[in-house]
Structures are given as structure tokens and as C-alpha cells.
Specification:
single chain; mainly beta; four-stranded antiparallel beta sheet; about 0% helix; globular
Length: about 110
């Protein structure tokens, strides 16, 4: 029943880096994987996504600082986060986007201190 699992969150100072990972069931490797985040007191927002063909998109506020990628196994997606800012703080989720439904992980916390 748990099909995606996030890891790599933690506590960092502004300007630092973290790499998040999303490991998922093999059959999900043929679908787009997205990263969302939910800052405290705000709605969940799309951060980045990567298609099965490798096309990537980024929210404007993270463009140039975050990089999404798939590893060779095709069942892990990473989100490399550099030059972190306080406003990047939030609970980060990965999601697999299918035609009929979405599958969510349970989230990993990222906290960026000033």
C-alpha cells in the first residue's frame, strides 16, 4: 500500500544543500513523478516534476537552485536542493501521476534556518 517513500529531509542553514530521494514501486517508473511541498500555514504547492522521457519542470521560485533527476534504476527520483532559503521550509512529498489516479508518499520534513 506504500508505493512511494521520501527520504533525505533535515535541518539546514540558509545557503546549504539537501538531496531528497523518492523510491517507488517499479511499475510507477513509467509515469511522471512530481515533488510538492507544503510550507507551514500554506497550501501544498508543486515544486518540480520529471516525465518518463526525462522532461523536467520547476516552479519559478526554485528554478536554478533545485534539480530533479532519475537514477539508472528508474525507480528512484531525486531532488537536489542548493542555496536553500528559509521560505523553502516545508513538508516535501513525492507523487506519481497516472491517468486515473495519483499516488502520494508520506512526506519528509525540510527545515531551513536563518
Amino acid at each position: 500500500q506504500v508505493q512511494l517513500v521520501e527520504s533525505g529531509g533535515g535541518l539546514v542553514q540558509a545557503g546549504g544543500s539537501l538531496q531528497l530521494s523518492c523510491a517507488f514501486s517499479a511499475f510507477l517508473s513509467q509515469y511522471t513523478i512530481a515533488w510538492y511541498r507544503q510550507p507551514p500555514g500554506y497550501k501544498r504547492e508543486l515544486v518540480s516534476q520529471i516525465t518518463v522521457s526525462g522532461r523536467t519542470t520547476y516552479a519559478d521560485v526554485v528554478k536554478g537552485r533545485f534539480t530533479i533527476s532519475r537514477d539508472a534504476s528508474k525507480n528512484v527520483v531525486h531532488l537536489q536542493m542548493d542555496d536553500l532559503k528559509s521560505e523553502d521550509t516545508g513538508l516535501y512529498y513525492c507523487k506519481a501521476i497516472l491517468a486515473s489516479t495519483d499516488y502520494w508518499g508520506r512526506g519528509t520534513q525540510v527545515t531551513v534556518t536563518s
